[in-house]
């Protein structure tokens, strides 16, 4: 709990983040200037280098010298300096975020990096091809300049922005797939059913490794330490050329003709997500107590107590922590398995739940495990014992037990009376009951 | 000039229109011949009403068709993408490639066991589509032609609980409290309360009948103290039942018990002394 807050405080303080941008050459400053300027405009500090620069490093004396890494160098075979795919994995483990854009000329360095993170790019020289959804004006004839539609995007506004307002997006590059074991993989942009990845020069597609909606154009994941990684097969997606292009889809069902491309909006949204400007939440305060009180009990709860649980959650929006408005946060009351699971009522960032503790005693946890696509993983545990009733807390006057009470007390009263009679009764041997009666008879 | 001719040529080839002909689909037994009686011919761009269903991994999925150049009805072989696309309701899909035969016909023919490699561990209901595309094809084809129910061999994927990632809301859990045991009705318990009290009434009644006296009572201050102590202990037990807890009760019982013990000792000693002197 504490470390989470500490971590989040650190994140907050370093919002003016240092970003290392790697291009194939320094020319990236020109070809992708609009994109890079938009990042600078949001207050990030960019360092633009060639990917094979001999002085590259992510760590200095074991400390991160960059918070984020953007690789727009598809063809790089070997990273320069101390950079390598394992070094970048270490960077991710330390909380760094990575955005990687590849292309059909993909080099070993990028492929290896993808594999380390549970994604796999297709072989060099291949490209994603879609004969149904290419751009008629920009395409060179092999149908590799694709037009991405809204329905290919992941249903997560935090990652891709407002999909309903997004214009068609241009894509030209290589396809990738998520590894079978990659359970954290997010299909940020999928291929269409008609798309496939193959050598565009081939006469006939024989056995495509990647085809259909399994094709990923943009894939991402949020690691268990909340570091974010995005892979895309197209560095052109971020280029000035595509930002300013007009889109003419070959698909007759796309109504927008000659429309401004949505690349700038999409690249912005994805980059904001990767650079942790979006979808970051944290716990501000947690409290739980009996109904009518304000503090947790000093030691433990009793079974079937009525308890109030309150958690305050904040979300990072435009650089400020504001109350979190999600309505689907759930609280679990867990002893190995959850006994109670209930939705927390959100009142402007203060989420509460009222519930009756189960009639089972033991060591329980109040657990909030909030994991939603796009948000950082929120996990909070409060441990508390629940004890059984004291012997005085059981029901004392049970109607159906009155025969038992009555018989015990009648025994006790009997004892008192009997002790008096037994000790002090003086039996007159001559004038006992029997003789007295016979005497009475004689008198008659 | 030659560049212009090239580009004209390119435009010419890029505007080829194609048609699908003799599209036959069927589920065949292992060694069954692909004759027309076992296959169903689906007219181009219509959807078959038949559900093609295979329940055994040894059965074959058979699909064959011809591609024609619309302009001169010649066999067309310039398509790069000749795919059979199988989509599930969930959005997951699989792609099979139809291969051209020597006769110019495109064919997919494989047992489900072999096909399952392309199906990414999917099985069940599929929507089958034919996807034809190529650089030279003007209007690519994406035709949903039939539904399939394929019992493909799958390997169940079991994810350990610790590795499961759940992004959605989980079902609510209400704790089911233990229900209290059923109790007899108030009438019965009240009746038996009276029943258990009758022996005491009988005792008192019988004593009065036979006549009791206190002739043996020694004239001593200890006698009322002893019996008050005894009655006090019983009374304490009654209060214990009403409100006290065990520790408070023991505290009071210690005082009462001591007094009663001393008083009882004195009373019994006097009684013993009296009976001893009488017998002598």
From TrEMBL, chain A:
General function of this protein: Subunit of the oligosaccharyl transferase (OST) complex that catalyzes the initial transfer of a defined glycan (Glc(3)Man(9)GlcNAc(2) in eukaryotes) from the lipid carrier dolichol-pyrophosphate to an asparagine residue within an Asn-X-Ser/Thr consensus motif in nascent polypeptide chains, the first step in protein N-glycosylation. N-glycosylation occurs cotranslationally and the complex associates with the Sec61 complex at the channel-forming translocon complex that mediates protein translocation across the endoplasmic reticulum (ER).
Name used for this protein in its record: Dolichyl-diphosphooligosaccharide--protein glycosyltransferase 48 kDa subunit
Pathway(s) annotated for this protein in UniProt: Protein modification; protein glycosylation
Topology in membrane: Single-pass type I membrane protein
A GO CC annotation given for this chain: oligosaccharyltransferase complex
Family under the similarity heading: Belongs to the DDOST 48 kDa subunit family.
The protein's assembly and partners: Component of the oligosaccharyltransferase (OST) complex.
All copies of domain OST48 middle, residue ranges: 288-426
Keyword Transmembrane among record annotations: yes
Signal peptide: 1-16
InterPro entries: DDOST_48_kDa_subunit, OST48_MD, OST48_N
Domain of life according to the entry: Eukaryota
Residue ranges of domain OST48 N-terminal in the record: 18-274
Transmembrane recorded as keyword: yes
Any single biological process term in GO: protein N-linked glycosylation via asparagine
Automatic annotation (TrEMBL), chain B:
Domain Ribophorin II third: 22-150
Superkingdom, natural source: Eukaryota
Signal sequence bounds: 1-15
InterPro entries listed in its UniProt record: Ribophorin_II_3rd (IPR055374), Ribophorin_II_C (IPR056790), Swp1 (IPR008814)
GO cellular component, one term: oligosaccharyltransferase complex
Keyword Signal on entry: yes
Segments traversing the membrane: 191-210, 222-244, 250-268
GO biological process: protein N-linked glycosylation
A Pfam family assignment: Ribophorin_II_3rd
Localization terms from the record: Endoplasmic reticulum membrane
Metabolic or biological pathway: Protein modification; protein glycosylation
Alphabetically ordered keywords of this record: Endoplasmic reticulum, Membrane, Signal, Transmembrane, Transmembrane helix
Domain Ribophorin II C-terminal: 177-273
Membrane-topology annotation of the record: Multi-pass membrane protein
Alphabetical list of PANTHER family matching this protein: DOLICHYL-DIPHOSPHOOLIGOSACCHARIDE--PROTEIN GLYCOSYLTRANSFERASE SUBUNIT 2, RIBOPHORIN II
UniProt record similarity statement: Belongs to the SWP1 family.
Known role: Subunit of the oligosaccharyl transferase (OST) complex that catalyzes the initial transfer of a defined glycan (Glc(3)Man(9)GlcNAc(2) in eukaryotes) from the lipid carrier dolichol-pyrophosphate to an asparagine residue within an Asn-X-Ser/Thr consensus motif in nascent polypeptide chains, the first step in protein N-glycosylation. N-glycosylation occurs cotranslationally and the complex associates with the Sec61 complex at the channel-forming translocon complex that mediates protein translocation across the endoplasmic reticulum (ER). All subunits are required for a maximal enzyme activity.
Protein name, UniProt field: Dolichyl-diphosphooligosaccharide--protein glycosyltransferase subunit 2
